[in-house]
Each structure stands twice: as C-alpha cells, then as structure tokens.
Amino acid sequence: MQPLLEVRHVSFSYHTIHGETPALSDIHFSLSQGEFAAIVGPSGCGKSTLLSLISGLLAAESGQILLRGKNVKGSNTGIGYMLQKDHLFEWRTIRRNALLGLEIQKRLTPENLRRVDDMLDSYGLGAFKNARPSQLSGGMRQRAALIRTLALEPDLLLLDEPFSALDYQTRLSVGDDIGSIIKKERQTALLVTHDLSEAISMADRVIVLSKRPARIRQIVPIVLSIPDRTPMKSRSAPEFKDYFNLIWEELNRHD
C-alpha cells in the first residue's frame, strides 16, 4: 500500500544577503494512513521548517514531498495545520470559530454542520458552543482549535508544538485529550515537540533529528505493553523510561 505521506531525500537552505544557511539535509521518511509520528531534535535544527515544507508553505531545494502520491505545492487543502496558539477569534462564538474553515471554503453543508456539532458535544465543548474564547480555559481553546482543523477532514494533520503555551499540568491533560481525539478520529498526524515524554506518549514512531543542518539520526518505533493506550497511560508503561533514555542519548551524541 502506498504511504499517505512520503518525504524523499529533502534538503533545504535559507538564503539571505549574508549567505546560505543549510537547515535540512537528506530527510527521508514516510507516514501510513492513521499513523501518528513525532519529530524531536535540538532547538533550531529545522523541525518547524520541515513542517512548512510538508504543508507547501516552503519549496524544497532538492527531493520530493508527496501526499497521496502527488507533489505538495502551495496551499494544500489536504493538510491541516495546528499551531502553538489557538488563533480563535474573540468576536465569534466557539461554534462559529469551529466552523470558520468550512465557511471560508464554502462547505457549510447540513452534514458538515452536524459533524462539527457532534465533535463539540463528544469532546466536552457542547455546553460552550455559544461562549466566547476568553470564557474558556487554555485546554478547552486548544480542543476548539483542533475541532476547527478536523472539520475540514484533512488527509494529514501537522501539529507545531501545540501545547507549548500551556502550563505543565494543563499540557499533560490537553495532550491526553488531543492525542485521544486524534486516535479516535483515525487522523494521520505529525507532531513537532521539544518534549521527549510528550513525543513518546503520543506517537507510534519518533523521528530523531540531528543539529542543523538536520538529518535523521534514528526513527524509533514506540511499542508499549499497556492495554487501551492513551498518552497519559503511556507514561506509566514499563518501556517508557527505556525509550526516553534511548532518544535522549541519540539527541546528545556529538558525532
């Protein structure tokens, strides 16, 4: 079966009047339908740049990026992008924020309206449909932002440190909520994070990048011996510490 996403030997450099800054070197991996992968690496190594290339916001200098076998170019409606901030509009209710993407794409059909209402109800926001963003906690706002993104039914969901603005306790709770929602919706997802525990607890595989120009040091499959895995339960798995130590050592190699 053809992978949903293929990143084939991609390299990229930033060019300024001061010269060239290599960011990524020969990045090569793929994602299958329904898979959740996480990307970790040193600060400034090019993790977010890689997401920008996959989304089509930037063009690779060499290599190919394919979504369902087709080259990713420009704005791609098959890709959903969830950022560090929720970017909810205060003058719109939570429901109207969740419908924003569908409204822009002129897809406010009865079926899509029902689907958004069902997600709001299922994921704890049904009672807050008519509230304004300022009336919700940070975690609830992130859930609303995720529903807004999932409403468009993207083939691939990109998450660029979506929990980094939250305090630690809220981050754990929201990561558990959103990770579980993504699994329940069978959404293919790629998460960028600095938090190794977050990566291990949420992902099926962790892609470890080197310092800039980033290359792939290792791809670590995450197999945990716990039933009904959720991000929070994953942290109690007996293998969790071993994966953490493995990835930590890989990140701190100096070769």
TrEMBL record:
Q: Does the keyword Transmembrane helix apply?
A: no
Put simply, this protein is called: ABC transporter ATP-binding protein
Keyword list, A-Z: ATP-binding, Nucleotide-binding, Transport
A GO MF annotation of the entry reads: ATP binding
InterPro entries membership: AAA+_ATPase (IPR003593), ABC_transporter-like_ATP-bd (IPR003439), ABC_transporter-like_CS (IPR017871), ABC_transporter_ATP-bind (IPR050166), P-loop_NTPase (IPR027417)
Annotated PROSITE patterns: ABC_TRANSPORTER_1 (PS00211), ABC_TRANSPORTER_2 (PS50893)
Q: Where is the ABC transporter domain?
A: 5-236
User: What are the top taxonomic ranks of the organism?
Assistant: Bacteria, Bacillati, Bacillota, Clostridia, Lachnospirales
